Amino acid sequence: xxxxxxxxxxxxxxxxxxxxxxxxxxxxxxxxxxxxxxxxxxxxxxxxxxxxxxxxxxxxxxxxxxxxxxxxxxxxxxxxxxxxxxxxxxxxxxxxxxxxxxxxxxxxxxxxxxxxxxxxxxxxxxxxxxxxxxxxxxxxxxxxxxxxxxxxxxxxxxxxxxxxxxxxxxxxxxxxxxxxxxxxxxxxxxxxxxxxxxxxxxxxxx
Length: 206
Description:
Elements: H1 4-9, E1 14-15, H2 19-36, H3 43-53, E2 61-63, E3 67-69, E4 75-77, E5 81-83, E6 87-90, E7 95-97, E8 102-103, E9 108-110, E10 112-113, H4 118-122, E11 125-128, E12 131-133, E13 138-139, E14 144-145, E15 150-151, E16 156-157, E17 162-163, E18 171-174, E19 179-183, H5 186-205
Helix pairs in contact: 2-3
């Protein structure tokens, strides 16, 4: 017979009030408490704790406390990740985050779901659906990403969005529900590279 954890990670109905899952949750809470108590002078210690909390990470990641998650052990993060304060990741299913991803304050990734039928829901059964975020993604403040969502590479999600469905690569998407506003195009590249060049020129003249 499969364990409740195996059912959970298979995105099937499971019971969270299980001894193995309670042990995993306790481990995560302990590490979160330690992470959230680190100071601005203890960033190396914080990084060590984050690498212990998460399933896998790149070498360079930064998470501004406080940070919250369910287990941590179901979260995979690429290189050069940044999460601003009050990030929440409910990882009852796998969460995969690519490289060069930035989160504004109060971004929430929620894999957890509950049955619509009240009687089944009240029995304690729940489920999760994986969330996947590609490379070079920027997610604005106060954005909610719902269970089962995939966000493509190079995409920008506007602040306050509620992402209920997949968002493709190379777009700006905003709103509730989040929808594609427009594609990111060559004009964007030219505009921002011009500003970058001006910044670099000013530095050389300083």
